[in-house]
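During the first year of the project, the team set up a workflow for recording each protein of interest as an amino acid sequence followed immediately by a discrete structure-token representation. This format lets reviewers and collaborators read both layers of information side by side without switching files. As required by the reporting guidelines, we include two representative entries from the current panel. The first entry is reproduced here exactly as it appears in our internal archive.
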Amino acid sequence: MVPGVIVVWSGNAPRFAAHRIPFVFGRDHADASDERISRQHVHLRAGDRCVTVTDLGSRNGTYANGRAITAQSDVWFPGVIRAGRTVAVALDDIRPFENVQLERRGKAVVGGTLAPACSAIDQAAIEEENIAIFGSLHVGIELAKSYGGQVGGNTIVVELDIMTTLPLAEKLVGTVPPRTMILVLRRPLCLPDLPELAQWLETDVRILCVARDRDAFKFMPDEIKAKLMPRRAEIPAVRYDELAATISDLVTPKPIHATLIEFALLQMQRMNEEQLLRYITDYASGRDQLTGDGLSEYIAGDRAMRDCVAAGIPRRR
């Protein structure tokens, strides 16, 4: 393990830079738009499964996991650190994020976290094999579309929810036969799906299954599972290096305060990414400035309202 820190936001925009620690973090590592960071703002040193954060007498203070530190604090890995309007994440192993640049695959931001999944999908595309992608559905769909782009030809997306069976024939009416079929499994594949699915597995159509987990296949015979997922790609639940740019893409051109990125990174340890991004999208609607405190209040208010509805308490008008 090589401990380090990823700078993910600075001033008014996403940023991506990986540094090994010990490390003195300051203005030279931030964007010029961050006027609140000092030249030598904070010292980071690796401890036993933690990072020791020492404020170096900065003008505007240092925050570790959302709390102001007066001088020095030990923060367990992973730790979220904000110096001025620059936000970084301290990790116990920085190597997967070194020599990496953020790129886009459709609407998905790809950095060090998604690199192994992208590599598996690219290899499947080269060999034109089926593949199952597990994890966040919205990220999985974008990565699956990149497979279709590499293979070429027509790509269709079929979403299966709890109320439907496999509507492949209906989806294909009036369309060019697909080269790639993306099955988004919001519910498990069921026995009524099996005859249609088995027929498609005998064709030259490449099938990509996007599912949250392997339970999506629990009702399928082993032979069908083997054909659907000779390859697998895993999308990690927590994407510290890619979240800030994902949020920026989501709400641009609205201005984002660094505290919103700080708060969102901390929330990744408590809720899944899709839920978090839905909250951010809803919170951003009709607001001119997006802050961490504002998002925190919005989430707390939404949860309180849902608790009232669940308890049968009338909402105030």
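The second entry, processed by the same pipeline in the following quarter, appears below.
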Amino acid sequence: MDKTRNAQPNAAGAHSGEGLLLRLELRSDPSLLCAVRGAVERLTEGFGFSAEECRAVTRAVDEALTNIIRHSYQGAPDRPIELKIRAMRQLPAGSAAAEGLEILLSDHGPAIDPTTMCGRELNDVKPGGLGLHFIKQSMDIVEFQRADGANCLRLVKFVRTPKHSSQL
């Protein structure tokens, strides 16, 4: 099942400050990725994700930022990227209410055709090209849209483990 789809703007969504946990404005400099990984990892740990989920979300954000730097900005280290992370509560289809994180990444590179956003075949063994596979595998929702002259990527991950455990 392909979880990537074109996003439609929602009333309480990407432009709302509601539930905002972190907002970063950074340049497309790869040396900044380490700081972003650290911030995302700490935030996911504090939010209640398991260690495996923390690594998955951190890897997905890192891959998405790397793709923006490499493909949208062609490696230019001085272009703007915005990252927002919001707490959210949603009813995923067929399950009880779930808490999660919504991660919004935007850049001002050229418009991207979402149909061209596909990784290479998994059986094609060579370095690179697996970032989108990692992102789709790690996140519950992956959506892309072009809005107001920006490429906007929305990643959502729901908490699978309880936030607090009273069991010893």
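For the second entry, the following points were noted during internal review. The radius of gyration is 16 Å. Residues 4-158 form a domain with the Heat Shock Protein 90 fold (CATH 3.30.565.10). Both points are flagged for discussion at the upcoming steering committee meeting.
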